[in-house]
């Protein structure tokens, strides 16, 4: 899950490449590199371990002038993050320069063949093998396009690549198999990128590459083809967001900005999709499979990470209000488990990026087995959005912080809208319940704002616990997955070990972890599980655990059992996970900041996991 950029056109390519790499850095930040074709048709390249700003210190910009170039920001898969393994990779003769996002699975057998052909290698990467394979074919065909095509027919695995050639210094060739790749068609310029963030500043007209396609891009235009050399005509699509949406807007971190944007992003998720008088829900993107949804024998939700947690909440929603048996699957397990699926099953794929490799593969497996597939996706035009039978965009807007926040609450809202649409059509929800839910939905953004205004309280508690080594998060019912999500947020940005559990599970083992050094967060809204959760709190208190409770406004009683109480407004059970998540997002954010962690780009992580 690296970031690839390329530029060919009227401007100096280097500034465009560097700006693009900085915008794509949330995809991977182990190393960065660029290669530019200068006026003498020489290719000049620099690469460096670390962030793009470290790369910029490596050279004097005047050394890299030219209108054609490629760049890369890396998330290491093969070969440790260092200068040698950084991209671009090139062959011994410095003819082919190539950047790659993905994994070449048969790189060792290709390397063996190339070694016999006298090729030499100086890195530990699969990408260097691909680069030399292109050079191998170039030596035999003297044709850059043919060489790339032949090389790509030989490799197995996933790739998004951009490459340039000294011998044919007037073009960039890009290709895709499994990893996202697109290019923006501007006036006298074309910008290649792994996602729209590096393009939106120059043009909103983009061409998405599909699997098995490549494009030859020259100053005057481009040719889109399949790897089997068939020409493709494709309309450009329009990027829906502005540059401002991918800027920090005065916030210290993207994560803080995105947490504070949630009252607005949640409105964008339900705006125009629900009639507050009748409760009628209209999800245009779902219409093609509406009958399949209403007659389904089983729902299966599959996803990864935070999206998987949203899926767990969806299971509670679908079973409680739609009365459809629902299962939630880790996409990485589902795709290999030979699941029993049939045509009466509907498989929901939840993904913020729409590019997560395991979720995309789970989707393809569900389709192969005959299920109807429905996407719940944020990134418009992403691979999962283009592959599903039908879907609903969550409209959370661009999410740059690696730790997902506003996408999670908008995923929950989209699942709630799907639930209401299905339950209404099936008549499985009582009018009184629907009325309560609609009236709560109207005021939900305000209630989210009320929580966001309490930042100082969350910061205070975070300061108290910033040096903790472990944390436990406990919840019941709809809020058990919220406990899992709270623990994940803390792990991924503050590097504190944390686990989430159904509160009643503690007695079956984890309670052995409890002592005066173990902070335990309880999600304890005043719902049907309240009395049970109070007993669970007492079990932990009896063993001197430090207790932080997320409780409803007005619940002062709970102070007797808690060391710290963070109040959130009360709402309908179906929306409680949305409100209860926000204090947990802030707790993890403020603890990470207090520990000096890089909140937006946590170590070892990347925003979109496009490799297995
Ligand atoms: C969440 O904060 C993480 N970034 C990660 O768990 C993420 O949810 C997971 O990789 C799934 O990503 P997706 O929603 O883009 O498919």
* Bound ligand species: 2-deoxy-2-amino glucitol-6-phosphate
Helix-residue proportion: 25-40%
Write out the strand line-up for the largest beta sheet, numbering strands in chain order. 3-2-4-1-10-9-11-15
Q: Give the tally of β-strands.
A: 25
Biggest sheet details: 8 strands, antiparallel
Low-pLDDT windows of residues:
none
Could you tell me how far the N terminus lies from the C terminus, measured between alpha carbons in angstroms? 10 Å
Description:
The protein is α/β, with parallel strands linked by helices. Helix content is 35%, strand content 23%. It has 18 helices and 25 strands. The strands form four sheets. Strands 3-2-4-1-10-9-11-15 form an eight-stranded antiparallel β-sheet. It has a seven-stranded antiparallel β-sheet with strand order 5-6-7-8-12-13-14, with helices on one face. A five-stranded parallel β-sheet has the order 17-16-18-19-20, with helices on both faces. The longest helix has 22 residues, at 431-452. The model has no long low-confidence stretch (mean pLDDT 95). Bound molecules: 2-deoxy-2-amino glucitol-6-phosphate. Residues 304-307, 351-353, 356, 359, 402-404, 492, 608-609 line the site of 2-deoxy-2-amino glucitol-6-phosphate (AGP).
């Amino acid at each position: 899950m690296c970031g690839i950029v390329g530029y060919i056109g009227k401007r100096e390519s280097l500034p465009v490449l560097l700006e693009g790499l900085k915008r794509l850095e949330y995809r991977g930040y182990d190393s960065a590199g660029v290669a530019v074709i200068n006026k003498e048709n020489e290719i000049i390249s620099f690469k460096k371990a670390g962030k793009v700003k470290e790369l910029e210190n490596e050279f004097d910009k005047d050394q890299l002038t030219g209108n054609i170039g490629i760049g890369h920001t890396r998330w290491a898969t093969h070969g440790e993050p260092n200068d040698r393994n950084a991209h671009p990779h090139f062959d011994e003769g410095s003819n082919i320069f190539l950047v790659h996002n993905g994994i070449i699975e048969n790189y060792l057998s290709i390397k063996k063949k190339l070694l016999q052909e006298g090729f030499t290698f100086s890195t530990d990467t699969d990408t260097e093998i691909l680069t030399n394979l292109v050079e191998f074919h170039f030596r035999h065909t003297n044709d850059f396009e043919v060489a790339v095509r032949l090389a790509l027919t030989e490799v197995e695995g996933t790739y998004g690549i951009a490459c340039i050639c000294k011998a044919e210094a007037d073009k960039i060739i890009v290709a895709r198999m499994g990893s996202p790749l697109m290019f923006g068609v501007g006036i006298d310029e074309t910008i290649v990128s792994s996602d729209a963030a590096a393009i939106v500043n120059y043009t909103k007209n983009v061409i998405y590459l599909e699997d098995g396609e490549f494009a030859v891009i020259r100053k005057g235009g481009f040719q889109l083809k399949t790897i089997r050399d068939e020409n493709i005509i494709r309309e450009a699509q329009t990027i829906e967001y502005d540059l401002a949406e991918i800027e920090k807007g005065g916030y210290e971190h993207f994560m803080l900005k995105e947490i504070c944007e949630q009252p607005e992003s949640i409105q964008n998720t339900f705006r125009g999709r629900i009639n507050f008088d009748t409760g009628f829900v209209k999800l245009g993107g779902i219409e093609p499979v509406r009958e399949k949804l209403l007659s389904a024998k089983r729902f299966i939700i599959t996803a990864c990470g935070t999206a998987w947690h949203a899926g767990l909440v969806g299971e509670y929603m679908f079973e409680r209000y739609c009365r459809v048996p629902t299962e939630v699957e880790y996409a990485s397990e589902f795709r290999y488990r030979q699941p029993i699926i049939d045509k009466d099953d509907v498989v929901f794929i939840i993904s913020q990026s729409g590019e997560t490799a395991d979720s995309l593969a789970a989707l393809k497996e569900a389709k192969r087995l005959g299920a109807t597939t429905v996407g719940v996706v944020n990134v418009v035009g992403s691979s999962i959005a283009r592959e599903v039978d039908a879907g609903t965009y969550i409209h959370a807007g661009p999410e740059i912080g690696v730790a997902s926040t506003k996408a999670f609450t908008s995923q929950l809202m989209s699942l709630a809208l799907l639930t209401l649409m299905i339950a209404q059509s099936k008549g499985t929800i009582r009018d009184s319940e629907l009325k309560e839910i609609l009236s709560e939905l109207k005021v939900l953004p305000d209630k989210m704002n009320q929580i966001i205004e309490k930042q100082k309280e969350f910061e205070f508690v975070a300061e108290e616990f910033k040096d903790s080594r472990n944390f436990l998060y406990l919840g019941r019912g709809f809020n058990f997955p919220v406990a899992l999500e709270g623990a994940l947020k803390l792990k991924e940005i503050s590097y504190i070990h944390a686990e989430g559990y159904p509160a009643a599970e503690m007695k079956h083992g984890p309670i052995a972890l409890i002592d005066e050094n173990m902070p335990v967060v309880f999600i304890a809204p005043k719902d049907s599980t309240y009395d049970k959760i109070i007993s669970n709190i007492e079990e932990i208190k009896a063993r001197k655990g430090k207790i932080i409770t997320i409780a409803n406004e007005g619940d002062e009683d709970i102070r007797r059992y808690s060391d710290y109480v963070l109040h959130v407004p009360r709402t309908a059970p179906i929306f409680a996970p949305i409100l209860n998540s926000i204090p947990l997002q802030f707790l993890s954010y403020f603890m990470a900041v207090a520990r000096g962690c890089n909140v937006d780009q946590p170590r070892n992580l990347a925003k979109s996991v496009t490799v297995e």
